[in-house]
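[Primary structure, fold]
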Amino acid sequence: MTQEELAEVSEVSVRTIRAIENQDRQAPRSSSIRQLCAALDIPADEEMRMFEQIYADGE
């Protein structure tokens, strides 16, 4: 899936997706992460691990 396709499916901008991939942002919005996880069919337990990692790294 391309960034453009993911942006369309998740309703998260390509700019935000690129920033997350390039780690240009310390902590992306939780709503963006949720939307991306839903679009990629990521299970809730894995989504929770991602949140823990993202926000632990941002401290």
